[in-house]
């Protein structure tokens, strides 16, 4: 009889496991907004021109929420021209020239590329949360997935919570 009771208890416990597992698998909304994919026109909507709307800018295809720096990136601010677009070249060259406000890094010098990496890691990734990626970073020109894509990590942001 003791063996039968043990089997009954084991069956009851095993039957309870799927319920516990189901509870664990239930959808939980993320603590923050999920990371998303931005096309150029979508990103352009977050250029800092509308009061109360977030301000986003992309560097190296990574979209950052720079709203906390609206005194730099908001309407009429000194670096507003960087907002609402992928301004990788402008950041690398420390240029606000409209011709440099692009994702294209063709022809940059080693010094400019080093500057880009330093600013990307020590300013943007260190100070502003990642909210997404440009479609150019995740997708190939033909629309197929970029198999080399790897999400960025941030030392004080928990990126796994964003996916």
Q: What attributes characterize this protein structure?
A:
6 helices; alpha+beta; 4 strands; 163 residues; disordered C terminus; four-stranded mixed β-sheet
How would you describe what is shown here?
The chain is α+β, with helices and mostly antiparallel strands and 163 residues long. It contains six helices and four strands; from the N terminus they run H-E-H-E-E-H-H-H-E-H. Strands 1-4-3-2 form a four-stranded mixed beta sheet. Strand 2 and strand 3 form a beta hairpin.
Strand tally is 4
Order of helices and strands: HEHEEHHHEH
Radius of gyration: 23 Å
Structural class computed from helices and strand pairing: alpha+beta
Helix content: 25-40%
Catalogue the unreliable spans: 8-14, 157-163
What order do the helices and strands come in, and which of them pair?
Layout: H1 2-25, E1 36-38, H2 40-44, E2 56-59, E3 62-65, H3 70-73, H4 88-93, H5 110-127, E4 130-134, H6 135-138
Parallel strand pairs: 1-4
Antiparallel strand pairs: 2-3, 3-4
């Amino acid at each position: 009889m003791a063996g039968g009771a043990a089997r009954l208890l084991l069956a009851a416990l095993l039957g309870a496991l799927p319920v516990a597992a189901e509870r664990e698998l239930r959808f939980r909304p993320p603590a923050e907004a999920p990371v998303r994919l931005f096309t150029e026109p979508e990103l352009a909507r977050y250029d800092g021109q509308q009061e109360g709307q977030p301000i986003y800018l992309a560097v190296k295809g990574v979209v950052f929420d720079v709203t906390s720096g609206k005194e730099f990136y908001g309407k009429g601010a000194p670096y507003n021209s960087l907002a609402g677009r992928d301004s990788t070249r402008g950041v690398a060259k420390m240029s606000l020239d409209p011709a440099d406000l692009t994702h294209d890094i063709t022809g940059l010098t080693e010094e400019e590329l080093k500057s880009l990496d330093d600013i990307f890691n020590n300013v943007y990734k260190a100070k502003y949360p990642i909210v997404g990626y440009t479609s150019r970073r995740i997708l190939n020109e033909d629309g197929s997935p970029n198999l080399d894509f790897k999400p960025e990590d941030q030392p004080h942001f928990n990126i796994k919570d964003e996916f």
